[in-house]
Design goal:
Layout: E1 8-12, E2 18-20, E3 23-24, H1 31-37, E4 45-49, E5 54-58, H2 63-69, H3 78-82, E6 86-89, H4 93-101, E7 106-109, H5 117-129, E8 141-144, H6 146-154, H7 158-188, E9 193-195, H8 196-209, E10 214-215, E11 220-223, E12 238-240, E13 244-248, E14 251-253, E15 256-257, E16 261-265, H9 272-290, H10 298-316, H11 321-324, H12 327-333, E17 366-369, E18 375-378, E19 389-392, E20 395-397, E21 412-414, E22 417-421, E23 426-428, H13 437-444
This protein binds glycine (GLY) and manganese (II) ion (MN) (2 copies).
Length: about 450
C-alpha cells in the first residue's frame, strides 16, 4: 500500500447470515479479516494504514447479551490478545472510518467481495466531501485491496503450514475411517448396503473429534454412478458391494482448509475394470506430482496428468484410436475432456479454492492451447514458489454410451492430495490414507 501511494484499508469480517426463519447459518469469519487478526467474532472491522498502524473495531462486552450469545473479547482486551495497535467499540465505526479517511490519498478495500461495502464507503466519502469547505481532504482514489491480500495469502508461512499439515492429517484419517467403516459393514454382511450419509457421518465424527471446526466445503460422498456428478453432495443412495465410493471431503482447522479425495471399492476389492481405470488416475497423479516443485508452472501438473489420462483412454478403449488418433491428437483436440473435464488442482489455504493469481502477472501474453481444442492468447500460468499449497486431483468419469466399453460405465474416480511446494519438489501432506489400490485393499481387508 505504501509503495502504491498510501491510504487506508478497510476490512470487515463476514456478516452473520440467516438460514431460515430466525435460525442462522453457523458463523464463519471472513478469510482476509481472520488472516490479519485471528479474531472470529462477528461485527468486527480492521482498519490498516500504509504505515502499518492497525485499528480493530469490535463489539463491546455486554453482560446480558453474553448470557445469550457467548463471550465477547471487547475492545479493552483486544490489543493485548490480538496484537492490534488499538481497538474501539464497533458502534463507533462510522466516526472512526471518517476520521481515518480524512486527508488520505486513497481508500482500499477488497472489490466485489461484500455487496454492502462499497455503499458504506460511499457514505463515509460523502461525509468527508461535506467537510471539504472546512479544509478536510477526501480520498480521491478507490483501490482494490484484493490482489494485495491474495499475494500475501498465496505463500504460506511456517505457522500456516503447520495448521494445514494438521488439517490434512485429520482429513486423511477421516478417509481411512470411511474405508474401514465400509469394509467392516460388508465383511459382516456382503449383501448389505451402506448409505452415503452414514459415510458422511463417519467423516464428520473424525473431523470434530480431532478439533476441526467442521468440513471446509460440502462433503462429496458418491456411491457408484453418483461419482460421475462432479459436485455431488452426500445423499442417501445405497452403496453396494462391487461398486466404487468416491469421497471428496476435507476439514477446516483454525481457518485453514484441506481438500482430499479417495475412491475405494465398497467391499474392499477392486474389480479388474475398476482397477484398470484407477491405476491410470493414480499414474496421472504421480506424473503431476513429479512436476510440482518451485520453478515449474502451475499448469505443468495438469499437462502431465492429461498426457497420462489421454494415453490411458486410448489403451483401455474409452477413446477409439481410429477415430481420435494418438495421445497428441487427443490432447490437441481436447477429446479427453469427455472423461476428464476439470482442472488438476487449485491453490489451497483459508479458502478451499484459495485466493491468488493463477497467471504470471509480469510476463507477456502468449498463444497457448485453451484446453477446448483451440488456442487463446493469455499470460502463461504462474511459476510455483516454495510455500504455495496446491491440490493435485486428476480423475476419470465415464458415463454410459454406446461407443464406450460397458465394463467402464458409471465409474467415477478421483484421487486428490494436498501438496506444499518446496524448492526441490513437493510435500504431500494428506498421505495419511493410502492411494495405491493394493494398499487401499490391504487397509480395508484389515
Ligand atoms: N472439493 C473441491 C475441489 O476438489 O476442488
Ligand atoms: Mn480440490
Ligand atoms: Mn476436493
Amino acid at each position: 500500500m505504501a509503495r502504491a501511494g498510501g491510504g487506508i484499508a478497510l476490512l470487515p469480517t463476514a456478516p452473520e447470515r440467516m438460514r431460515n426463519g430466525d435460525s442462522e447459518y453457523p458463523y464463519r469469519h471472513d478469510s482476509h479479516f481472520h488472516y490479519f487478526t485471528g479474531f472470529d467474532e462477528p461485527h468486527a472491522w480492521l482498519l490498516l494504514d500504509a504505515s502499518g498502524r492497525s485499528t480493530l473495531l469490535c463489539r463491546e462486552r455486554h453482560a446480558e447479551r453474553e448470557i445469550w450469545d457467548g463471550r465477547r473479547l471487547g475492545p479493552e482486551a483486544a490489543p493485548a490478545v490480538l496484537g492490534v495497535d488499538e481497538a474501539f467499540d464497533v458502534e463507533q465505526l462510522d466516526a472512526k472510518a471518517v476520521e481515518r479517511l480524512a486527508n488520505q490519498p486513497a481508500v482500499w478495500f477488497p472489490f466485489g467481495e461484500q455487496p454492502e461495502l462499497q455503499a458504506q464507503v460511499d457514505g463515509w466519502l460523502a461525509t468527508l466531501r461535506n467537510r471539504e469547505r472546512g479544509g478536510v481532504a477526501c480520498p480521491q482514489t478507490l483501490r482494490d485491496l484484493g490482489p494485495l491480500l491474495a499475494e500475501m495469502r498465496l505463500v504460506k508461512d511456517s505457522s500456516e503450514l503447520a495448521t494445514m499439515r494438521r488439517a490434512a492429517q485429520i482429513s486423511a484419517g477421516a478417509h481411512a475411517r470411511a474405508m474401514r467403516f465400509c469394509a467392516a459393514r460388508f465383511r459382516a454382511d456382503p449383501q448389505t448396503a451402506v448409505r452415503e450419509y452414514e459415510i458422511e457421518a463417519e467423516l464428520l465424527h473424525e473431523f470434530r473429534r480431532h478439533g476441526s471446526q467442521g468440513p471446509a466445503y460440502t462433503s462429496i460422498v458418491a456411491a457408484g454412478a453418483n461419482a460421475c456428478v462432479l459436485h455431488y453432495a452426500a445423499g442417501s443412495t445405497e452403496l453396494r458391494a462391487g461398486e466404487l465410493c468416491l469421497v471428496d471431503a476435507g476439514c477446516e482447522l483454525d481457518g485453514y482448509a484441506s481438500d482430499v479425495t479417495r475412491t475405494f471399492p465398497a467391499d474392499g476389492r477392486f474389480t479388474p475394470a475398476q482397477r484398470a481405470l484407477y491405476d491410470i488416475v493414480q499414474a496421472a497423479q504421480e506424473a503431476a506430482i513429479a512436476v510440482t516443485r518451485a520453478g515449474t508452472r502451475r499448469l505443468d501438473a495438469h499437462d502431465a496428468a492429461v498426457r497420462v489420462l489421454a494415453q490411458g483412454m486410448l489403451d483401455t478403449g474409452l477413446l477409439d484410436r481410429n477415430a481420435v488418433g494418438d495421445a497428441d491428437a487427443v490432447i490437441a483436440s481436447a477429446a479427453y475432456r469427455r472423461f476428464y473435464m476439470h482442472g488438476t488442482g487449485h491453490w489451497l489455504g483459508r479458502d478451499v479454492h484459495d485466493v491468488g493469481d493463477y497467471l504470471s502477472a509480469d510476463e507477456a501474453p502468449v498463444e497457448q492451447p485453451d484446453g477446448l481444442g483451440g488456442t487463446v492468447v493469455k499470460k502463461p500460468s504462474r511459476v510455483l514458489q516454495p510455500g504455495m499449497v496446491v491440490t493435485i486431483e486428476p480423475g476419470l468419469y465415464v458415463r454410459p454410451a454406446a461407443d464406450v466399453p460397458e465394463r467402464f460405465w458409471n465409474l467415477g474416480i478421483r484421487i486428490e492430495d494436498d501438496a506444499v511446494v518446496t524448492a526441490t519438489g513437493c510435500e504431500l501432506i494428506s498421505r495419511g490414507v493410502p492411494v495405491d489400490a493394493l494398499e487401499i485393499e490391504r487397509l480395508m481387508q484389515g
